[in-house]
Amino acid sequence: MKILITGTAGFIGSHLAIELIKRGYNIVGLDNINDYYDQTVKYGRLERAGIAKNLIEYNQLVTSSKHSTYRFIKLNLEDKDAMMQLFEAEKFDAVCNLAAQAGVRYSLTNPDAYIDSNIIGFINILECCRHTGVKNLSYASSSSVYGLNEELPFSTNHNVDHPISLYAASKKSNELMAHTYSHLFGISTTGLRFFTVYGPWGRPDMALYLFVKAALEGKPIDVFNNGEMLRDFTYIDDIVEGVIRVIENPAKSDSQWNGKTGQTSTSSAPYKIYNIGNNNPVKLMDFITAIETRLGKTIQKNFLPIQAGDVPATYADVSDLVKDLDYKPATPIQEGINKFVDWYLDFFQVEEKS
User: Fold this and answer.
1) Is the whole model's pTM more than 0.85, yes or no?
2) Among 71, 76, 83, 168, which is 20 to 30 Å from 31 by CA?
3) Dist CA 168 CA 141 (whole Å)
4) pLDDT of residue 35
5) Positive or negative, the Cα torsion across 121, 161, 247, 126?
6) Is 315 a catalytic residue?
């Protein structure tokens, strides 16, 4: 099977590409390697998979020096003509769209980036699938779509019509757009609502990265909502396993569905939405304590009010994931944090200080 994975210089995409290569798939990776955060980490992820920085150019496929079945192309999702040329030339069997402008807070100050990547880029993905016969599309959504919903755990059949950030609205838009193409053109689409993904090679704008960096530098960390936050932290390897099971099991039409059932995670079209979370929310202060335990030091804390666009709690109902795919994430938080810190120290060549 030949699979296009977009966002392979990104956190989840880079891990997914390497794992799929190990399992014998033929992978084309795509990313525009933008400067939203430190590109050193992005190029490091690509180098880990054998994609050399000095060989990367726009619109040119580069073959990995480590994996003959992995090629990479630097490309913008918004470049419709180049995207269509890629799809027509490669004739993909499946597409996993993980490329997107990430970040809740960044969407407050740079909304255009979300429209370009998450809306225009996504419609280009859908159109390319439609016109080249790709019938298996999975894509990243987000737990952020739950917005003002306060009913826990978050279920994929809850109402998500009240987002509180443009990032969340763009992800909800992706789900609506995907359903339309499933209904009109028979494309199997599966949306994946990820819950606070963490682990080695994680994003520099995420809490774990920021907390560890500050702690190692002897600086205080900002703790929002005075620490009264609850997050369903999900380890990267668990996320990747869930995504692979979705790719290998494309969405099917729900024969029991009708417009009166109220079921929003399935449809008469080949369409499905899953939560992928640990199903075990952790208090933010316990998360920080786990970091302190690994580092053997107390971290200075600045307690602040909740930020615009943030929600106080996330908690994933993963019953559909268990029922349909026989899978449930389970990595303990201390284990995952330990692995992240080990990676951070090695990648940045930081020496731990007592």
Assistant:
1) yes
2) 168
3) 8
4) 93
5) negative
6) no
